[in-house]
């Protein structure tokens, strides 16, 4: 059901783009052509009526898809879906688990070797 509505939604979007591109321009950009929708009522052409119909159908399918997606969500977080299971909740007063840094940090060096990457420490002489 959801796939059918999604396909209809995509077809409506493509049809709406096509119909809007077929319409005649009113002149200057953003309605500054001296007339048009700002000064008088534009004539309701067939393409104008088709545009309104397609726009209404597009909005209805958008709302329908939103409602269907919300009903499928059932209170589960997106992060829960990605990890495969819900994360364990920490109880009050318990310390968080320590991070496993094995392999992320270089091993500590025993002293200031000549070839080591350790910072130089001045002697206390």
TrEMBL record:
Keywords: Cell membrane, Membrane, Protein transport, Translocation, Transmembrane, Transmembrane helix, Transport. The keyword tRNA processing does not apply. Pfam families: SecG. InterPro entries: SecG. It comes from the Bacteria. The keyword Amino-acid biosynthesis does not apply. The chain crosses the membrane at residues 51-71. Its main location: membrane. It is a multi-pass membrane protein. Involved in protein export. Participates in an early event of protein translocation. This is Protein-export membrane protein SecG. It comes from Salipiger mangrovisoli. The lineage of its organism: Bacteria, Pseudomonadati, Pseudomonadota, Alphaproteobacteria, Rhodobacterales.
